[in-house]
Amino acid sequence: MASAALCVICLLLDVLATFMTALGLNNNDPAVKTRYYRIAVWVMTLALIAILVALILYPVFFVQELELGNRTLWEFGWAYGVGWGAAIFLFGAVVLLLCDQEEEEIYYKERTIIHAENDSRA
């Protein structure tokens, strides 16, 4: 039950982070865009931690339940592999969001400096 709750928390946090990223992409102000991106990165990181804890706790509790049962062979289902796939893709999303954030900040800083130089010459 704890693993399932952590997976649901991960899903909700991921939806929130996606919404924050969309707000950042929709905004033209670089400072506000950066704020939305940073919030999205932190929320996605929390979602990643939640799914990793769930994927680690599940086998631990599974082994404890295995000792109480009478079956000799138990296997994980396909959903456990999908969970690890989700964790890998979520980690990639966090890294790409960090890379994209820095690139846009550099672009806007360069653009602002160029405009400031042109105004001082005129």
UniProtKB/TrEMBL annotation:
Its main location: other. InterPro entries: P53_induced (IPR015664). This is Putative transmembrane protein. GO terms for biological process: cell-cell adhesion. Residues 1-24 form the signal peptide. Belongs to the TMEM47 family. One of its GO terms (cellular component) is cell-cell junction. Keywords: Cell junction, Membrane, Signal, Transmembrane, Transmembrane helix. It is a multi-pass membrane protein.
